[in-house]
Amino acid sequence: MKNTLKTTATHKGMNRRALLRGGAVAAVASPALVGKAIAAGEVTWRIQSHWPKASASFDASLGKMASTLEERTDGAFKMELLGAGEFAKGPDIFNIVSKGVVPMGTLAASYFEDQASVANFVYGIPGTFRQAWEFEHALKNLGLEALLNEELAPKGVMLLSEKVLPVEMTASKKIEAAADFSGLKIRSSGAMLDYLSAAGAAPQYVPGSELYQALSSGVVDGAHWGAAIGAQSMSLWEVCKYHYKPVLAQTTDSYIVNLNALEELSDDLRTAFLDTVQARFFLRTAEYQHQEALALADGVANQGVEVVTLPDDVLELLAEASTKILEAEGQKSEQATKAADIYRTLMTDLGYS
């Protein structure tokens, strides 16, 4: 039976601020919540994912989080998982969660860059961070995620980062000079569209559920769907045999949660949910780095994949684009200026600029 929380508007506002703070600093782990403490708060949430069910992250990220939460709450918190397009496609997920049509979804923050000026900073500015831990630190300890949630609260939603993952491009054509990159049709999204375009490519957005067909029919010449794991799980290497290094960006996948739905949970279920998502963020990010290496090695050994380093002239164009994008994104709002400063300070501390 769904638990409802009756509050005054003032009380609900206080709860919402506490949720935003708690989402940014939730404990990494706590004892399993079982028995009478949660028996009265049973709930089932429908989750609309941007991942097709074929994507590695549908099971290993969303499925694992849901099963861990159900086990932790002794079956009191269940999730019904919907693959990409079953109810809504990626760009529509923010709106259906904001309106409360479903309580939660998965997406990339770039999908709602028109809704929040810090969205692309949480998605990941290309050409900046080089290692996953750097972005983890910026998101959770230095305040990027909290800055975004300040913007999202009036829209009735909260973002919780699901994992940090690398972005690498795979393509059906070999790139040996900037001329080969010019006009290359690459599936992309968010600030990566500007990044790739600045280097001469012709990026365009294609929903995940339509990506394989777009590649196999020549609508696009290449794509980034994460890196090696994404390319393998989405069968991109069947069409695109060239896998490109270095990492174009460290990026994130995210959960978007309706704040009213979160407030309506019993205190125990809300704590279990927030702690489970936070713990899975760190565990899944680390696991993903290991699986990336395994996936790429398998692609080379068994699928005829060739790992290619982007030529210097393309990398120079991309570096110039990164600086311009960071500057432009930082001018969007006061929160965006703070986000850009987080990037610049950390990159300076790491000796990257």
From TrEMBL:
<dbReference type="Pfam" id="PF03480">
    <property type="entry name" value="DctP"/>
</dbReference>
<dbReference type="InterPro" id="IPR018389">
    <property type="entry name" value="DctP_fam"/>
</dbReference>
<dbReference type="GO" id="GO:0055085">
    <property type="term" value="P:transmembrane transport"/>
</dbReference>
<protein>
    <submittedName>
        <fullName>TRAP-type mannitol/chloroaromatic compound transport system, substrate-binding protein</fullName>
    </submittedName>
</protein>
<dbReference type="InterPro" id="IPR038404">
    <property type="entry name" value="TRAP_DctP_sf"/>
</dbReference>
<dbReference type="GO" id="GO:0042597">
    <property type="term" value="C:periplasmic space"/>
</dbReference>
<keyword id="KW-0574">Periplasm</keyword>
<dbReference type="InterPro" id="IPR006311">
    <property type="entry name" value="TAT_signal"/>
</dbReference>
<keyword id="KW-0732">Signal</keyword>
